[in-house]
């Protein structure tokens, strides 16, 4: 395998590794090469990303290499995160989230029994938005997944703890509408519009070929 192919594979491996990253020893085990060569490949890839002004960079944290975005691009990511298509929750997702919030830990089957409809898509959406997560397995046939809310759920809704959830006026298991409406009010109050986000700094203009050539000439004359 050629050198460039190794770098391409490393880029893919770091992407797949996510926040955990991979160290030189792990890369060498996967690629079947020595650790020193792995470190050199990572360094070269890091230089490639910087030289080509790519949207990703390689950072080393606690000995592990991670593929990360540039901090200066954060305002753009915030706009994406708070755009209506990204931040909004459907009625189905809100219903599912309210069931999990008030009755966790709970399985998909129990959620669907309460809602009366399939909830796979709503669950997937909530997991993707990091509002719910797997918290265990039920002691039942097939060991189904138990879902619960995340720390991000508390932060998003401005709750110090689950005990701070609005209490339903009734405690009947059939009061899904009331629980959903209360959660929706909390959710609606947390929405941030794009206009409320800090302005994005202007993108610097690239010099024309003539301007760049003129600058080079001036630099040579100064020398």
Automatic annotation (TrEMBL):
- Which intervals of the chain are annotated as region Disordered? 194-223
Q: Which InterPro entries match?
A: ScpB_csome_segregation, WH-like_DNA-bd_sf, WH_DNA-bd_sf
Q: Where in the cell is it found?
A: Cytoplasm
Superkingdom of the organism of origin? Bacteria
Q: Which UniProt keywords apply?
A: Cell cycle, Cell division, Chromosome partition, Cytoplasm
Please verify whether the record's keywords include Transcription: no
GO CC, alphabetical: cytoplasm
Q: Does the keyword Cytoplasm apply?
A: yes
Q: Which GO terms describe its biological process?
A: cell division; chromosome separation; DNA replication
One matching Pfam family, short form? SMC_ScpB
SUPFAM superfamilies assigned to the protein according to its UniProt record, in alphabetical order: Winged helix' DNA-binding domain
Matches recorded under Gene3D superfamilies: Winged helix-like DNA-binding domain superfamily/Winged helix DNA-binding domain (1.10.10.10)
Record's subunit section: Homodimer. Homodimerization may be required to stabilize the binding of ScpA to the Smc head domains. Component of a cohesin-like complex composed of ScpA, ScpB and the Smc homodimer, in which ScpA and ScpB bind to the head domain of Smc. The presence of the three proteins is required for the association of the complex with DNA.
Its job: Participates in chromosomal partition during cell division. May act via the formation of a condensin-like complex containing Smc and ScpA that pull DNA away from mid-cell into both cell halves.
* Family recorded in the similarity comment: Belongs to the ScpB family.
This one is known as Segregation and condensation protein B
* Species of the source: Paenibacillus curdlanolyticus YK9
């Amino acid at each position: 395998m050629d050198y460039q192919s190794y770098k391409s594979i490393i880029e893919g491996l770091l992407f797949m590794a996510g926040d955990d990253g991979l160290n030189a020893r792990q890369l060498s085990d996967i690629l079947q090469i020595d650790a020193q060569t792995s470190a050199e490949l990572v360094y070269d890839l890091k230089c490639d990303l910087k030289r080509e002004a790519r949207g990703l960079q390689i950072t080393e944290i606690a000995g592990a290499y991670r593929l990360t975005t540039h901090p200066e691009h954060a305002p753009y990511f915030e706009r994406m995160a708070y755009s209506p298509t990204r931040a909004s929750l459907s009625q189905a997702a809100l219903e599912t989230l309210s069931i999990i919030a008030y009755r966790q830990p709970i399985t998909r089957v129990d959620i669907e029994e309460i809602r009366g409809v399939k909830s796979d898509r709503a669950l997937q959406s909530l997991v993707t938005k990091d509002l719910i997560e797997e918290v265990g397995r039920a002691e039942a046939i097939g060991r189904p997944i138990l879902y619960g809310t995340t720390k991000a759920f508390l932060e998003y809704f401005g709750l110090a703890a689950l005990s701070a959830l609005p209490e339903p006026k009734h405690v009947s298991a059939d009061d899904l509408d009331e629980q959903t409406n209360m959660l929706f009010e909390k959710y609606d109050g947390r929405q941030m519009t794009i206009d409320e986000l800090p302005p994005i700094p202007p993108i610097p203009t690239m010099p024309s070929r003539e301007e760049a050539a003129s600058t080079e000439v001036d630099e040579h004359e100064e020398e």
